[in-house]
Amino acid sequence: MAEEIKITRRKAFISISDELRSYLRHYGRMAPLPATYTDLMGFSSCYPLMDKDGQSTLWDSVVYERGVMEELWPRLTSIYSLLKTGDMQSVPHLYIERVDFCGFGNSKPFRIRVVNQYNDNYDHFYVKVADASRVYGLELEHLLSPNSITYLCHENTLIEEHIAGIPGDVFIKDYFDRPDVNRVRVAKEFVKFSERCFIRLLGDMRSYNYVMDMTPDFEETQYRVRAIDFDQQSYEGAKSIYLPQFYKENLPVVQMCTKYLNYATMQQYQQEERTLIARRFLAEKGRLRSLFRCMKSHPVEPVAKVEQLKRELGDYHSTDYFAGCASMGDLVEKHIEFTLGRLLAPGLATVLPPVE
Predict the structure, then answer these.
(1) pLDDT value at residue 136
(2) Tell me: the pLDDT tens digits for 47-76?
(3) 276 and 175 in a common domain
């Protein structure tokens, strides 16, 4: 925890390149949308959204003129239908209960609350500015993690499904001391989550940027940590940004892991996660290589950050394997190859030493 972590808080949005658009179209991620991020920016006023305890949520509920609502609401329910069913049909029994806006952070998202009027069941989806680094993060999460991700792009707009779970900061505050929480399983999942983030260089995993998904099993609850923010996919230059244990917000998690897991057990869980990622990589190798080509063909991250990260990764792994990398796309691809090593191909074992 001694390193100082500095993140570009308001990094510029990175445009979607033509090659990336072709990739997204090929894999069903592009769709014409009846409403865009710009359309949602036409609200007339807003008011703070508070939680059940009267505390600020950092979200504002926005208000539109009646005429705007009458035109915009059906388009939003059509987008929800497209996201969930693949068919942009009008669903009369769905209505928009609330639109929230968050000016905190990079993406400044809108959160749309959709309600079924027959049973009052609700769901959410998000409307954001389409940012290439975030799209890369979503794709890598979909392909290399145990979690499927649904999202759509159109022009400058990105539509994302809601990822359900208990926000990490809430879980740390309200659940860590509960007697029914299996701390060993929680610690195991944080170790595996940290390994996933570092291997594919997903940064800024502070406690409010991931959720804990809790699933009751036939004997005990199963846990899974899921990232929900992908703005810092391979953008910053400091290695520590991609290691969740270096954020002060995650200190209680680190303390739990060191208390309930010894070093050999942590290594076992890291190796298990590498093996699972390697299997996913081999299953989606063609698609991943296409994604890496998009990342390398449109390098827009600052050169100084690329130079810093390849130097720090080389020092960390004691290798010059990253010396020839010219972009973050190069670094992500090479870092995955290096950390997974012989799990990807027996021939790589002669080039890539085992990672301890």
Answers:
(1) 96
(2) 999 988 888 888 999 999 999 999 999 999
(3) yes
User: Does residue 2 lie in a domain region?
Assistant: no
Total domain count, the chain: 2
5 domain residue, yes or no: no
Grade residue 254 by pLDDT with cuts at 50, 70 and 90: very high
Q: What is the pTM of this model?
A: 0.92
123 and 231 in a single domain? The answer is no
Provide the 10 A C-beta neighbour count for residue 170: 15
Check whether residue 214 and residue 178 sit in a common domain.
Answer: yes
The predicted pLDDT at position 104 comes to: 76
Query: Quick check: 350 pLDDT over 80?
Result: no
Verify that 119 and 155 share a domain, yes or no. Answer: yes
Is residue 200 included in any domain, yes or no? yes
The pLDDT tens digits of the residues spanning 151-181 come to 999 989 999 999 999 999 999 999 998 999 9
- 144 within a domain of the structure (yes/no): no
Q: Which domain holds residue 121?
A: 18-131+150-161
